[in-house]
Write a structure and sequence with these properties.
With 355 residues, the protein is of the alpha+beta class. The chain is built from four helices and 14 strands. Keywords: Membrane, Transmembrane, Transmembrane helix.
């Protein structure tokens, strides 16, 4: 019987395992690690660029007059990180280069009086691939861009500027740029500003419908609008309506007061009153248990449409034969005629007088 040497097979198995591990490292783990490091580095670069650009924006806003006196359409005012640090727009010791060793340089041109054309360039340092430059520009935001073939291109095609408008200054393809367009010292873009910019009401003005996404608007003082469509409840301390108010139902726990006509299909008093009972004030209307209308007159409830019988008395020939002419006093009315029996073989009648 032939014996096989196990050592050779064991060595072969180990080599295969190492080969597989090497393939995993070279095709998956190492590339993934490199991608993660690059993404982090790009994110840091974009964050630093935003910080510098925010300082640039504030500097231009605060120093528009002096910049305007220096910058022209062909000769720029140049702003650097050391200048921003010196003017306290960036903290002391803030690096003038990014983690790719690129230096910030802001060119401010003035093509028209009070209108600044601004671009912050990252010059020198590592030459970035266009794909990496695009990635950083996207992370910077709407103002971020990169240079390609002499054109400054905004992230995701948001804007495009020929570098000839910046005196032909061109650090080279793959370099990062940050755009800024100003008018009278205020940055001019399509963002909605929280604070008022003097002379620029358009920066606080919406040009399209504002969708709140179901969220609240709080702490408003006065809201001016042409129309309002509200599908739920309106809660207000007072409401002044100068024209018609259309409503399916009006419910009031207090008074409804009008200086003119109140018109409706029906009047239904909810208060039940009893004739002769005290009431205040005169003129109010209620109803009795049978549904008859009651009005308050002289401090007492009376049925409307009938004659009041607050005070009544009877006069007539109580004693029988009597040819006296009986009639109610002035201000009283005859409420009825009553037979009171026979007196001395004569019928006796009395009149009921009321007021």
């Amino acid at each position: 019987m032939r014996k096989i040497k196990k050592g050779i097979y064991q060595v072969s198995d180990s080599v295969i395992a190492l080969g597989v591990l090497f393939m995993v490292l070279t095709t998956i783990i190492i590339p993934a690690s490199v991608w993660t490091v690059n993404e982090y580095r790009n994110t840091v670069t974009a964050g630093q660029a935003r910080t510098v650009q925010n300082a640039v924006n504030k500097y231009i806003s605060d120093n528009a007059t002096s910049i305007s006196a220096s910058a022209t359409a062909t000769s720029p005012f140049t702003l650097t990180v050391p200048m921003l640090v010196s003017a306290n727009y960036l903290p002391a010791g803030y690096a003038s280069t990014n983690n790719f060793s690129s230096t910030y340089q802001t060119k401010i041109f003035q093509p028209a009086t009070g209108k600044f054309h601004v671009m912050t360039f990252l010059t020198g340092g590592v030459d970035l691939k266009l794909s990496q430059a695009r990635n950083i520009a996207i992370k910077i935001g709407a103002a971020g861009g990169y240079i390609e073939s002499g054109i400054a291109k905004g992230a995701l095609g948001a804007w495009s500027e020929n570098l000839s408008t910046f005196g032909g200054f061109n650090p080279g393809d793959g370099h990062i740029v940050i755009a800024g367009f100003y008018q009278n010292g205020a940055i001019s873009n399509d963002y909605l500003y929280r604070k008022a910019i003097p002379g620029h009401p358009e920066l606080n003005t919406m040009s399209t419908a504002l969708n709140m996404g179901g969220n609240d608007m709080t702490n408003s003082a006065t809201v001016h609008a042409q129309n309002a469509t509200i599908t739920n409840t309106v809660t207000a301390a007072n409401a002044n309506v100068s024209d018609m108010l259309n409503s399916g139902k009006i419910m009031a726990t207090g008074k409804i007061t009008s200086s003119d006509i109140v018109e409706g299909k029906y009047l239904y008093p909810s208060q039940v009153a009893t004739a002769g009972k005290a009431c205040l004030p005169n003129g109010i209307i209620a109803r009795d248990n049978s549904g008859s209308a009651m009005s308050c007159k002289n401090g007492k409830w009376n049925r409307m449409g009938g004659l009041a019988q607050n005070h009544c008395k009877q006069i007539g020939n109580f004693g029988g034969r009597d040819f006296t002419h009986y009639k109610c006093p002035v201000g009283w009315y005859a409420a009825g005629l009553q037979f009171v029996g026979h007196q001395r073989s004569e019928s006796a009648y009395v009149i009921t007088c009321c007021q």
